[in-house]
Amino acid sequence: MVELSPATSFGGNNCCIPWLADGYIAWIGSSQDGGMDREIFESTGAAPEDNQKPSPPLLVIVRLNGVDATVEWDQVLGATSYNLYVAPQPGITKNNYQSLAGGRKFSGVTSPSTITGLTNHTYYFVVTSVAGGVEGPESLPGTATLWNPAGNLTNISIYSVAAGLTNRTTAYAAGGKKVYKTSDGGSTWNALAGGIDGLDVRALAVDGPRIYAATRDFFGGPASQIWRSADAGLSWEAVVPDGGSPGELNKSLAIDPTTPATIYAGDFHLPSMTEPGDSFVIKSTDSGSAWSHLPDPTEPEGAEIRAYAIAISPSEHGTLYVGGSGTPNLVKSVDGGVTWTNVSMGSGYVNCLAIDPVHLDTVYAGNMNFTQVSQGLYKSIDGGRSWTRKNAGFPTPLPRINALLVDPVNPLYIHAATDTGYYFSSEGGDYWTAGNGGLNSPGARLIYSLTLTESRQLIPGTSSGLFVLDLSPFNLTWSSLNVAQFRNDLVLSWSQNAQGFVLEMTDTLASTTPWEVVTNAPAMADGNITVTLDIAGRARFYRLRKP
Questions:
Q1: Alpha helices (H) along 154-261
Q2: Which residues contact 248 (CB under 8 A, 6 or more apart)?
Q3: What is the SS3 assignment for 531?
Q4: Positive or negative: CA dihedral 314, 514, 99, 116
Q5: How far apart are CA 9 and CA 334, in angstroms?
Q6: pTM over 0.90
């Protein structure tokens, strides 16, 4: 038999006639001697018009072995060689790899091919086929994620991690009845004292030097409290007095990014709580000195909020989502919690929430049903009015999603902490990929919490301590696009320090006209990335965009 796929087929009566990149055509047809058997035929001819020639590999698989990655791909008929491209950020192509931080090309490689000396990043690999000196388009990407242990905190369950928007390399973690601090992006951690030592902290929130820590409660045990430090963890004071015990192991804290003196917390029962009417969500507008209960929704009758997760809009003051095990299980407020709207996606529990920082009506939620079976991820693009399940790529049975984080640099890049490991999507949740290299035990893959430092260190809290993934290649600076004309050439350039941008063009600025990626190869000179284009007798518009 002749292996046809993934060669390009263009017809044939008995089977199909694939065009091979070396200019030959091969097919299986009826015997020419009058028999009933099939024979293989081969002839030369003009290749069909096909912008996929030569075809890319259909599947790229990456396997980690320590700091080495072995990349394998399927063979393409007619291909004489392959090129392998790699970068520690998504969106890599044969045309833009030089403009991506850490982007590399390996020419003339064969499958399998091993890339050595990987460091603490997520890497993206694409492969192209080459035939007759012509390089085809890229394959779909393969990925490899390599986590590093963070400090010496092993065999400790870390239930909460948090980093502030302006805290650079500083982050905090809670587990083992201690709160820890790192000032170097997770490499080293030190236990804090000052009154917080020995408390079972289950939620943290950070705003500059102010840190808030919420302790858990349980039936028959001590009531929960909120503690505050105003000096980056050196000293602490209890700012929420002991109240009743809602009996919830889950605690949540969230600081309003538009008004950092405003803090929300759940589930708490202050001495001032009155039922029915008051919810288990409390709020402070003076940096945690005074707290009061927010009301429960007025509909349906008997509605009660349980706040396992709180997500606050990054730029719409007063807009927040609260989810948990209440009825309804997810509510939204646009007035700081004075009134609530039911935005539930159905029955069950809401474990975690995240809001897209650019598209503010896009919300993500992790859900599980009342029998503790995960329903995976839900996504809304209309502020919670409707929801769609987004579970492609997750294993079966679906993992429980404990924490979600939308990347502030690229909002299509979503991070998910689950009870079976770390998953990420570079497509806004449409497809999920596991990234568990370096999380080498079941405990390390049981992830409770997730945070991202301002310096772009992704830190998960697991049942086997802390780990770190360096996302600093995404820490890109914006750059202006410089345009110059030399006779019939247009030269566009931008700073080489501002890596990771795609150059795009369009004929008109009408909203219905799409932007096209400029595929001309970039050059590096004098600290700039330069692309030269033929003006071709018409005016066009150009822009830089982060993929």
A1: none
A2: 216, 217, 267, 280, 306, 308
A3: strand
A4: positive
A5: 56
A6: no
